[in-house]
Amino acid sequence: MSKVRLTREQSRDQTRQRLFDAAQSIFLAKGFVAASVEDIAEQAGYTRGAFYSNFGSKSELFLQLLKRDHESVMADMRAIFEDGESRAQMEARVLEYYSTHYRENDCFLLWMEAKLQAARDPDFRVGFTTCLRELREATTEYIRQFSAHVGTPLPLPAEQLALGLLALSDGMQFSYAFDPQAVTPEMTEAVLAGFFRRVVFGDASAQ
Q: What pTM was computed for the model?
């Protein structure tokens, strides 16, 4: 079979995705500070020059890697609204997504690494804060859409709900990641689902 020739844009996208994947693996293994551009390029199968033809710095790559994860999360949330399901089906899918997303531990640990770097580096903090705000704004909009679609009034402003639900998810992921024997998957999902039912659905009977 003849080899398919990629367009210049496809080739560049492939290079960037390989660099993203290599960076994610190395950041998780060594930490952002200890990882070098050379480490990332070598693991991806490219040269240092290929790295800098796609990213201005290691920090820029890291922020775009976080954005890639953020866009993946938003795509999952959009899919819930695009399927045209009934209220009960949509509520069940939203609840399942929120209560089980903590299982994506690799990306969660990347966000933890980014928070540490933002605390140390004011320049990185600017870009990271922008990324966090975009995540909260998108989550806020989906909460509004969910409320309008199913006809459930919100007990708090959507901005406050988004902030609280994201913070709770982060906290439970942290507890599960570092103490899984005490904070089991069953307990994690029960806490997330219980809070979501009470706060978003207004279900006072939720356990």
A: 0.84
Task: Assign domain 8-56 one CATH number from 3.40.50.2000, 1.20.1250.20, 1.10.10.60, 1.20.1530.20.
Answer: 1.10.10.60
- Percent above pLDDT 90 for the chain: 58
Residue whose tokens read 């007990």 = 155
Q: Where are the domains of the chain?
A: 8-56, 59-200
> Bigger pLDDT: 198 or 22?
22
Angle at 192 between CA 190 and CA 74, to 5 degrees: 135
Torsion of CA 48, 54, 60, 65, to 10 degrees: -100
- Give the residue-averaged pLDDT of 181-206: 87
Residue with tokens 């299982």: 103
**Bigger pLDDT: 119 vs 12:** 119
The DSSP H or E segment spanning 129 is helix 122-150
Site of tokens 């409320």:
147
pLDDT tens digits along 144-161: 988 888 787 888 999 999
Maximum pairwise Cα distance, the chain? 63
- How many CB atoms are located within 10 Å of the residue 77 CB? 22
CB 70 within 8 A of CB 172: no
Same CATH fold assignment for domains 8-56 and 59-200: no
